[in-house]
Automatic annotation (TrEMBL):
Keywords annotated in UniProt: Amino-acid biosynthesis, ATP-binding, Cytoplasm, Glycosyltransferase, Histidine biosynthesis, Nucleotide-binding, Transferase
Disordered: annotated span: 1-30
Compositional bias ranges of the Polar residues kind: 1-15
GO biological process terms on file: L-histidine biosynthetic process
Biological pathway: Amino-acid biosynthesis; L-histidine biosynthesis; L-histidine from 5-phospho-alpha-D-ribose 1-diphosphate: step 1/9
Domain of life: Eukaryota
Protein name: ATP phosphoribosyltransferase
SUPFAM superfamilies: GlnB-like, Periplasmic binding protein-like II
Family the UniProt entry places it in: Belongs to the ATP phosphoribosyltransferase family.
Cellular component terms per the entry's GO annotation: cytoplasm
Residue ranges occupied by any ATP phosphoribosyltransferase catalytic domain in the UniProt entry: 97-244
PANTHER family: ATP PHOSPHORIBOSYLTRANSFERASE, ATP PHOSPHORIBOSYLTRANSFERASE ATP-PRTASE
InterPro entries: ATP-PRT_HisG_long, ATP_PRibTrfase_cat, ATP_PRibTrfase_CS, ATP_PRibTrfase_HisG, HisG_C, N-reg_PII-like_a/b, N-reg_PII/ATP_PRibTrfase_C
Protein's organism: Kwoniella bestiolae CBS 10118
Amino acid sequence: MSGISSVLPSTTVTPLSAEPSAMGGRASKSSFGAESTMSLLVDSLKDRLLFAVPKKGRLMEKTLELLAGADIKYNRAHRLDVALVQNHPIALVFLPAADIPRFVALGSVALGITGQDVIAESTHAEQIDELLQLGFGKCSLQVQVPVTGPIQTVEGLSGGRIATSFEVLAAELFNGKEGVDSKTGKKTKVEYVGGSVEAACALGMADGIVDLVESGDTMRAAGLHAIHTLMKSEAVLITSKTPHPSLTPDLQSLIPLIKSRFAGVLASKKYVYASYNIERKHLDKALTITPGRRAATVSPLEEDGWVAVSSMVERKEVAKVMDELEKTGAEDILIFALDNCRVGV
Ligand SMILES: Nc1ncnc2c1ncn2[C@@H]1O[C@H](COP(=O)(O)OP(=O)(O)OP(=O)(O)O)[C@@H](O)[C@H]1O
Ligand SMILES: O=P(O)(O)OC[C@H]1O[C@H](OP(=O)(O)OP(=O)(O)O)[C@H](O)[C@@H]1O
């Protein structure tokens, strides 16, 4: 696949000897220099689907958990940003979350995991297909101002100074497509800050900020509050709308497979399996409490007039469901955690 060299800057490649088995060869510490390492690595990527995953930050840990849950096995050598998957023709490419939309949009990698916020900020959103929402990395991109400050509205910030890591989205909000606020005719100064954006107002460099909020702790600690939400975001599995021409049908077929495995892992966290016995005369009522995803399974018991019911239940509802089932006359209520499942995407 072309574009590999763009995701493999020479600084990211460490000696092959760090992980000979991952290369499928018999490289030894002494047999290759950095150059041959690079060429071997590039060679071994040719027949693999490249999958970009966050190399650090808020999305990394959950992404790695998801890969493990989907039985995508790999060894990542120290400092190496590429890891060959052992049980599939896939190579993981570890990249900053903010860079992933561009690599996916350009077809340099076939799949990626990143936040919807950085996709929107990347200006590549139109070339990207969102395959699956992953349920983690949930946050909101918000305009924030000092709680006790003189400006308390987005309109009031027009013509002022905004600090943000989301220059594109902030400029779009304040200056529109024309580059100035269409109502006030003023241009808001949007300044890029790489991190700790919340400090900008206290430091006197901005009247307001645009940054991510999850719990709100960072915002409150800085004496700020939100006055507008630009967007809500979570981590998503993405692919390019126009797959790279060199992606073979075999490799292409891994995309729905990975999506389906991820969906199974997510569903197994979202649902539990409930089983109980109930007198048939109470069954209708019980089924309104546990209707199941498609339908509950009902089987007769040896004891006359009794049935056994099993059904998927949302994990967050489970205590309430058990209370209600008990009130309805259900007995022997058992709840099982799911290790994994396939329940439709
Ligand atoms: N507080 C948060 N809660 C949940 N998700 C978040 C939060 N902050 C960021 N995210 C999500 O994680 C993504 C990566 O953010 P993070 O700041 O961890 O990245 P990073 O790659 O370490 O970048 P940087 O080096 O610029 O901080 C964000 O684009 C967003 O989708
Ligand atoms: O609402 P909260 O739960 O407090 O989370 C919000 C904070 O999380 C992110 O920053 P992060 O901690 O990733 O570090 P950064 O400031 O270096 O980007 C974001 O930029 C906020 O600062």
